[in-house]
Amino acid sequence: MKTIAERAVVVGADFAGFRLKESVSAHLTDRGWQVTDLTPDPQRLPMYHHVGFRVGAEIAERRFERGLIFCGSGMGIHIAASKCPHVHAAVCESVDTARRASTANGANILAIGAFFTAPRLASAMVDAFLESSLGDGYEDWAGFREYHQLGFDECEAFDYEAYRANGYVVPGSHEPELGPEPRGLSF
Questions:
Q1: Is residue 155 among the annotated active site residues?
Q2: Where would you tag: which of 16, 31, 41, 76 has the fewest CB atoms within 10 A of its CB?
Q3: Can you tell me whether residue 160 is helix, strand or coil?
Q4: Which whole-number Å values give the CA distances from 182 to 103, 139, 142, in the listed order?
Q5: What average pLDDT does range 56-73 have in this prediction?
Q6: pLDDT for 55
Q7: If you ran DSSP here, which 8-state letter would residue 105 be given?
Q8: pLDDT at 174 over 90
Q9: Do 11 and 24 touch, CB atoms closer than 8 A?
Q10: What 3-state class would DSSP assign to 54?
């Protein structure tokens, strides 16, 4: 698997996200990242959901640890990528939400909407997303990582039929102790 520790990431975009993907990819390359672009030809761009499926497959097959996807709103491509197993995709429109998607939700794909996000903001969002991991920055919040790891693990293993059969309660679930929010935490 190509990892963020190795500074490797997979990217893809539809027609609406192509220019933003190009800008962010150039930014990452300048910062020493190995960018694998699944949509390099602007003349032959697949529909948004096909790009989402394709980048999602790279995560599902464990070829890449993280991915970046771009369309007009970020929503449609996110929905498609999320259909792939082991994908935890997040649509973000700020640096803080991109970082939080990684640190609190363990997201492995970041979806960005080119209609709403300028190139410099998108680059800062991608930096925040790629340079953080589950629990980073919350070491002083007792139980934070364990609480969010459980959420990630239950989403990863979610079985709708078992959930339904159990009266719409996650079978075997428990809620870890989450300590009080540290003073001064802004989000």
A1: no
A2: 41
A3: helix
A4: 16, 10, 9
A5: 98
A6: 98
A7: T
A8: no
A9: yes
A10: helix
- Token pair listed for 63: 């070829």
pLDDT of 185 over the 80 cut: no
| Assigned token pair, 6 | 């190795």
Helix, strand, coil content of the chain in percent (nearest 5): 40, 15, 50
Report percent pLDDT > 70 for the chain: 100
100 pLDDT band (50/70/90 cuts)? very high
The DSSP code for 73 is S
Contacts of 156 (CB under 8 A, 6+ apart): 86, 88
Active-site entry in 71, 84, 92, 155: 71
DSSP assignment of 130-154 equals: HT--TTTT-TTSTTHHHHHHHHHHH
Contacts of 160 (CB under 8 A, 6+ apart): none
**CB within 8 A of 177, min separation 6: which ones?**
142, 143, 146, 147
